[in-house]
Design brief:
heterodimer, A: about 80 residues, alpha+beta, 2 helices, 3 strands, about 40% helix, elongated, B: about 140 residues, mainly beta, 1 helix, about 5% helix
Chain lengths: ~80, ~140
Amino acid sequence: MLILTRKIGQSIRIGDDIIVKIVDIDGSQIKIGIEAPKGIAIFREELYEKLKESNIEALKASKELNLDAIISFEEKKGDND
Amino acid sequence: MITIKSERFGELIIEEKDIINFPIGIPGIPFCRFIIKELIDPIKWLISVDDPDIAMLIVSPFKYFPNYGFELSDEIAEVLQAESEDELEVYVALLKDNDTVAANLKSPFIINKNKKIGVQILLEDERYKFKEPIKK
């Protein structure tokens, strides 16, 4: 991993079009500004991992969920609407 | 037209104009082209055109969670090429929660139904969870 030292207000450029800027530091918290092209998704790492897991779980759930039960649930509710 | 075969859906005949492109991708899924196929209103399938074994159940969240809502950032609106809100549809993935059905309210799919562009966003809103049970 490349490690660079930066001060508040300074930036790092990644490739031609990504800029990561140190906006503010408050104790152990660092505020970072990111400029990137529209097509690049930016997530907090821990949330990205959870999102990924949730999507994989949704693929699995689509095989495990009882579709007949879902269908009959919706049909029954439709009758009551 | 593309014909794809899968165990679950049999033979699917797909028209190019129905393919939704996810330019930013969907985390955890290596493909970007999907179609939506209705199971039973309001539940639909989101199926990968490249590998129909990759599919999830999605639903419009507003029926089960009437207070659900979020603001779309300008950046995402731009990716979606949305000119008005009427072009957009919102879906959430269905999950299994023990014996009940749950929904991922934290990261909805937004689809521009006219331009066939999709994005999965991640909401900062703490009220929304990755797994929220749907109460019957």
